[in-house]
Amino acid sequence: MKGSIYLKGDYFIPLKSNETFQLNCQDLLEKLKNLTSVLSVEVDSNFNLVLCVKRTAVYQATLSQISEFSSSYGMFAENKSVLVLIYPVELKSCASLRNILFAEHIISILTANKVEVFYCEEKCSSPGKYPNSTKLVSSKNCPSLTDICKELELKIVNSKWKIDSEITDSFCIDAENYIKENSLQQKYGKVVSRISISKNNLEKDLYRTAHMKHLLTAHMTKTPDFILHIGSQSHSVQIYKSGILLEMLEELSTTQVYIFNQNVHFKDQNELTANDFVLAYKSEVEKAMEHKYGEFTTTDETWVKRIESLVDSAVKFEFLKVNHNSILNLRPPSSESGGKSSGIFVQYNFARLSNLFRNFESKVKEGYYHLLQSLEEVDFSLLKLEEEWNLFHFVLLFPQVVKTLLDSLLSEENRKTRFYFNKVCIMLQDLCRYLSLYYSKIRILSGPQLHLQKIMNARLWLLKGIHQVFDNSFSLLNVSGLDLM
């Protein structure tokens, strides 16, 4: 955890007691003392293990990593494959849009970390944009689905989990005992006890299970490491049932992960469709750009693309900044209660940094400044302000944010409470607040004097690291960063 004025260190680890420390942390303490980047480490009176780091060394080492890895900074190479199944609720509804945007975000996280992703959308008239992934197209009318349903029916008849049904002309599967025997309570909870399948409506009751088997056998050359279901909470029981049946009847070893989004409501009385909500944001952004730059912004091709990117960012942040297991209360941008979009605020700060580097390069060409020093030449001891270290904390934090998200998706434990997919949005919002305060306090591009250029070089390298974190975060959100606003 990051330190504060009350904890006299850069970072701290809370311990349960001094006895715990004596038993488990003594070796750790000795190893930390020997690290070149650690200035001091101790256990305070409140049993916090407090670390002070050599900030100059940390600046140098971390920015060196960013310079080397750039768009791969903070990412991990995962040798995994995932099948993502996306379940819209109603066509053009905001609940369906929430599912699609979460799927975009999650697939972007996976592919940025070298995970091989295959995806299939169910009944989607407005498909999402899923980069670097393979779309699987399977028709509901595919003849082989009927054959698979018959195969599954035969397996149900011979299954050890088949029990007597109280409903005429139907099969009944004892899901409760299957879950208990296989220790799947964390995964499924108590939402499913018995699964009834009508003999007269077999294809409808077994469609989702048959569809998954069809994708795995007819559209994929190997079984994926994970099957990821993204849908709405209102459809969780049906989706769970199809997943349980696939595991039971096919004895599937692949881990299945379930992410269910809560409902979407509007704060005012206007229940808008997803298209209405997007168009409302587009109208507001167009008005703002016309007011600032002129009417040509709605007709010029470059500005039209910028406006599309701003609308995309605004809408995605509205949906993704609230975690999926919370009800989402939307405010249309034109309503009295509608506030400033955090997505547009983030894009503004990214564009401001891009403009800063453009201005610097322009003044270098004019001969006003020298070229930016190489990283080895920069004196990071000149970064003395606490605001600068607070900003740099986001650079240090970024790989851990990615790792937390990635580990939750590719975990065998599969606990439903462990997903925090708003982490990237929250991190960017916090970063922008710190960056705005720093920008208002410090004049980055100073005079041409040599001593001023030395500290300017250190600050520009710091902001290059921040800029890269923005860029890499945008790739996780499937958002295009704007260089001008």
3D architecture notes:
This protein is α/β, with parallel strands linked by helices and 485 residues long. Helices cover 50% and strands 14% of the residues. It contains 16 helices and 14 strands. The strands form four sheets. A five-stranded parallel β-sheet has the order 7-6-5-11-12, with helices on both faces. The chain has a four-stranded antiparallel β-sheet with strand order 1-2-4-3. Strands 8-9-10 form a three-stranded antiparallel β-sheet.
Quick recap:
By secondary structure, this protein is α/β, with parallel strands linked by helices. The protein has helices at 18-24, 26-33, 55-69, 94-112, 143-157, 175-181, 185-188, 202-205, 207-218, 236-250, 274-293, 301-320, 342-365, 386-409, 423-441, 450-477; strands at 2-4, 7-14, 38-43, 48-53, 81-86, 116-121, 134-135, 162-163, 170-174, 194-198, 226-232, 255-261, 264-266, 328-330. Helix content is 50%, strand content 14%.
Q: Low-confidence runs (pLDDT<50, min 5 residues)? A: none
Q: How helix-rich are the residues, as a percent range?
A: 40-55%
Rough outline = globular
Q: How large a portion of the residues is in β-strands, by DSSP E?
A: 5-15%
Overall structural class, as computed from helix and strand content, comes to alpha/beta
Strand arrangement in the largest pleated sheet: 7-6-5-11-12
**Biggest sheet descriptor:** 5 strands, parallel
Mean pLDDT over the full residue set: 88
Give the strand tally.
14
The total of helices stands at 16
Order of helices and strands: EEHHEEHEHEEHEEHHEHHEHEEHHEHHHH
Q: Write down the Rg.
A: 27 Å
Distance between the termini: 35 Å
Protein name: DALR anticodon binding domain-containing protein
GO molecular function: arginine-tRNA ligase activity; ATP binding; tRNA binding
Pfam family, one: DALR_1
Domain DALR anticodon binding: 346-485
